[in-house]
Design goal:
- This protein is 59% helix and 6% strand.
- The protein contains 15 helices and five strands.
- A five-stranded mixed beta sheet has the order 1-2-3-5-4.
- The longest helix is centred in the last third of the chain and has 20 residues.
Length: 325
């Protein structure tokens, strides 16, 4: 745009930074930020700093994110809930749990009410946190969202108890906004997988399907049965695979025929801030299971196998339990 001698406004600069934040282009964002400062006509505002902090936070670059926060404060802007949510995400990626707690306390000190997205960020951080530090984050979540805190307590502290986990989780999903339900369910299932609670993960997946948080995970046509994982997290995908394998085993046991092809669709490309895409991780997991699914060269993210190969493999798996790596 500069080459075309267009004068950029603050709104246009912020739009460019927001796009960089969406796709994770940190270097381009910094270049635009420096250009904005040197323009002589545009001064960074709170949204400018917020976008930069989001970019660094999603990449787990703690010192860079903290540096932008300091510049934001020097410019006279107080961090809002969006900035503090990004900081919590950043500290979580770096496994700096104590800093997550400090940032949460700062939210309360500023008189900011944690919303569903903020609590969802805390929940996501829990999926990246060592088991021995989970209680620190549970204390924060219990203050921010008691219903979510209660579900986590049942999940983590009463794993073998008689508490009605599924009913409590259902109440939680009916309480939170529809825009965060899938993220919450994905994170809770990821946490179950991290804690080796496959049965609980299956309960959550079943609940997610019954509440229509997830849809069309399994599909069937005369020629192909498929497992569709594009909208699922890694833990939820592994859980869905476990359920699907059990379903296919039951089909064989009932004497029903499998279709000519069976496929798994993981989607294509990487998560915008992830080192690996689901297809890459899943390919490794399928190899660990000695599953006969092969990635299809001209259908990115698809793994296919034939009826004959699938039947032979399923018959060799006499144990009903799938060990999730």
């Amino acid at each position: 745009m500069k080459e075309k001698q267009l004068e950029l406004t603050v709104i246009m600069y912020n739009t460019l930074l927001a796009v960089c934040a969406d796709v994770g282009y940190a270097d381009e964002a910094v270049e635009n930020f420096e250009d904005m400062k040197n323009s002589g006509t545009c001064k960074p505002d709170s949204w400018t700093f917020s976008s930069l902090i989001t970019i660094y936070s999603c990449s787990g670059k703690v010192s860079e994110a903290e540096g932008i926060v300091n510049k934001m404060l020097e410019a006279g802007f107080e961090p809002n809930i969006f900035v503090l949510t990004s900081l919590i995400q950043c500290y979580g990626k770096a496994q700096r749990t104590d800093d997550v707690v400090k940032t949460f306390n700062r939210v309360l000190e500023l008189g900011i009410t944690p919303d569903d997205r903020f609590c969802g960020c805390l929940l996501n951080v829990m999926t990246q946190t060592p088991r021995e530090e989970l209680t620190k984050l549970m204390d924060c979540i219990e203050k921010a969202n008691p219903k979510l805190g209660h579900v986590l307590k049942l999940l983590i502290e009463e794993q073998n108890g008689e508490g009605n986990f599924k009913n409590e989780a259902s109440e939680l999903f009916n309480y939170i906004g529809s825009d965060v339900k899938k993220a919450y369910c994905n994170c809770l299932i990821d946490l179950c997988i991290n804690l080796d609670l496959l049965e609980r993960a299956c309960e959550l997946l079943e609940l997610g399907l019954s509440l229509e948080i997830y849809a069309d995970i399994q599909s069937r046509s005369p020629n192909q049965w498929s497992l569709n994982l594009k909208s699922l997290s890694l833990g939820a995908s592994l859980t869905a695979l476990h359920v699907w394998i059990n379903d296919l085993t039951k089909v064989l046991e009932s004497g029903e025929e499998l279709p000519p092809l069976l496929g798994i669709n993981t989607g294509h490309g990487k998560h915008k801030y992830s080192e690996k895409g689901l297809a890459t991780v899943f390919e490794s997991h399928l190899k660990e299971l000695s599953a006969p699914f092969q990635e299809v060269p001209d259908k990115v993210g698809w793994f296919l196998t034939t009826k004959i190969a699938a039947k032979s493999w399923l018959e060799s798996r006499r144990s009903p339990d799938l060990v999730v790596a």
